[in-house]
Amino acid sequence: MKTRKFLRVITAVLFAAFIFTSCGGGNKNVTPLRTIAYKEFKIQNKDKALFKMVDGGKTDIAFDTNGEIVITCKFELLNTYKGNANQAIITLDALDSNGTKINIAPSFGNELRSDDNDGSQFLDFLKGTPGSTKTMVFKAAITGEGFKTDVVATQKAAEKIVAFEVKTDEEGSAGETRN
After folding, report:
1. 50 with 135, same domain?
2. Percent helix, strand, coil in the chain (nearest 5)?
3. Contact criterion met (CB below 8 Å) for 136 and 114
């Protein structure tokens, strides 16, 4: 009898804690899972001639209130893009310790995407002045039924991240064909 009462109390306490943190009443300063230096970000193809990660930078693997992985990146422009592209969509592929792409957002090609959905912000950056910087936030999550974030699966996937591949749209940075 005491065991049953004890289990009810524990269940009630855990449920209250879950509700409290889910509704925003919890600690907003969540410790990040891990910090990754920008030297672990591999910029692909000819994009290396246009931009790089800022020297000495790093980012945290963190989670938003919905359980999505959040990665903040700061880029530096090396050379001004002079082409005629209409967009420059940039994404991140999360990599494990073997350099293998991690399935992090299956419904979105397993890539972390920025909020620059049409690629106009990054294109504006690429057409800017060398030395200028642009900070972008990338998010991804593994989703379950009803496209709701599967927090546990997302966190397990995030635990494997040790590096990122930085890619632009399939036509390449600012519309150039990549090999």
Report:
1. yes
2. 30, 30, 40
3. yes
Where are the alpha helices (H) located in the chain, listed in sequence order? Answer: 2-22, 120-126, 151-159
Q: How many structural domains compose the chain?
A: 2
Q: Quote the pLDDT of residue 8.
A: 58
The region of weakest confidence among 23-32, 36-45, 66-75, 95-104 is 23-32
Q: In three state form, how does the secondary structure of 73-94 look?
A: EEEEECCCCCCCCCCCCEEEEE
With contact defined as beta carbons under 8 Å apart, do 112 and 105 qualify?
A: yes
Confidence tier at 174 by pLDDT (50, 70, 90) = very low
Q: 143 - beta bridge partners?
A: 149
pLDDT (0 to 100) of residue 109:
72
Angle among Cα 100, 118, 34 to the nearest 5 degrees reads: 35
Asked whether residue 101 falls in the same domain as residue 22, the answer is no
Please indicate, yes or no, whether residues 23 and 70 belong to a single structural domain of this protein: no
Tokens of 30: 């969540």
Helix (H/G/I), strand (E/B), else coil: 37: strand
Domain that holds residue 3: 1-29
Look at residue 106 and tell me whether its pLDDT is greater than 90.
no
